[in-house]
Structures are given as structure tokens and as C-alpha cells.
Write a structure and sequence with these properties.
This protein has about 170 residues and is α+β, with helices and mostly antiparallel strands. It contains eight helices and eight strands. It has a single domain, classed as 3-Layer(aba) Sandwich (Chemotaxis protein chec).
């Protein structure tokens, strides 16, 4: 692919001219694994790096595999709108939207950078004191520490096996 075509693609994706500078308009890429604690009042100190990337307003919602999603407001709205476009004629989408939105809550970190994990979501994901927060691209996920260890162990072999199916166009 020639550089001019590639640069135009970056400009179109980012909405601004100019290669690498245009990449600054992309949403933050949430990465890493963190191990904060949930206190007796249900509060968790959000890792500082993730707090900055998620922004001041975020949404917590039920996630797949019994975790809790933590999404920037804009990403939560994008997902909800995408599901709503298909929900009227698609029973599975309607069902998913009901569960997803009914378990969603707005969150804003307090002055110490803590967020309250509501009891409903702690029960859903079986969250106790020990949790793991992982960055998963456009969202973070909060997992029960033991459940995360089990999930990760169960995915080890599959991670290598499915790489060609999931990443067919990416070369390492």
C-alpha cells in the first residue's frame, strides 16, 4: 500500500489531517492488569492510568463471563445505540439490551479516585475483596480474582490455537 493512500486512511479514521498526529484522536487503548481491593463499603480505587483514560464519567455494566464492564461514557453510548438499532426486530438483541441497560450505572470517581461497585454488580460477578481489573481495549473489566485466574488458565492453549483465526491479517 502506498504511503499517500495509508495517510488518507489515517486521516479518514481520525478526522484530522496528518499521520501520527491524527492518531491522537483515537479513543484510549485500555491495557494491563491491576489488583486493587474492594473495601467494606464496596469502593474500589480505580488504577490511576485507567482513571485518566476512562475520563470523569464512566458506566459500569454487567459483562460476559460474569465480570463487570467499566466503559467510558462515549463507548457505552456507542454500544447501546448499536444494539438499539437492531433490537425492535431481533428478540436476542432486545433481551441483551434489557439485561445490559438494567444493570448499568453511571460512575464518577471520588476525590481519592475510588468508585462504588454497586451491590447488584458485586453479586453478579461474585466480587469480594480481591479483584482484578484488566484493560480490554475500549473498556476495562472487573473480575473476581479467582475467577480471572481460572479463566486465564483455561484460555492459555486456546490463545495460541486461535491466533490465526482471530488475527488473520496481522503479522508479528
Amino acid at each position: 500500500m502506498d504511503d499517500q493512500v495509508l495517510n488518507q486512511g489515517v486521516q479518514a479514521a481520525s478526522g484530522t489531517p496528518g499521520g501520527a498526529a491524527g492518531m491522537m484522536d483515537l479513543p484510549p487503548l485500555l491495557l494491563g492488569t491491576y489488583t486493587p481491593k474492594i473495601d467494606a463499603k464496596g469502593r474500589m480505587a480505580l488504577p490511576a492510568k485507567l482513571r485518566g483514560q476512562l475520563g470523569p464519567g464512566m458506566v459500569m455494566a454487567r459483562g460476559q463471563e460474569r465480570c463487570v464492564y467499566l466503559l467510558p461514557q462515549i463507548e457505552f453510548r456507542r454500544i447501546a445505540m448499536q444494539i438499539q438499532r437492531t433490537s425492535m426486530g431481533n428478540k436476542a438483541a432486545r433481551d441483551y439490551l434489557r439485561v445490559f441497560l438494567s444493570g448499568a450505572v453511571d460512575q464518577e470517581p471520588d476525590k481519592q479516585g475510588r468508585i462504588l461497585v454497586p451491590q447488584m454488580l458485586r453479586d453478579y460477578a461474585n466480587l469480594g475483596t480481591d479483584v482484578v481489573v484488566i484493560g480490554v481495549g475500549t473498556r476495562a473489566e472487573i473480575w473476581n480474582s479467582k475467577a480471572w485466574e481460572e479463566y486465564l488458565a483455561s484460555q492459555e492453549q486456546g490463545y495460541s490455537d486461535i491466533a490465526d483465526d482471530v488475527l488473520p491479517a496481522v503479522e508479528f
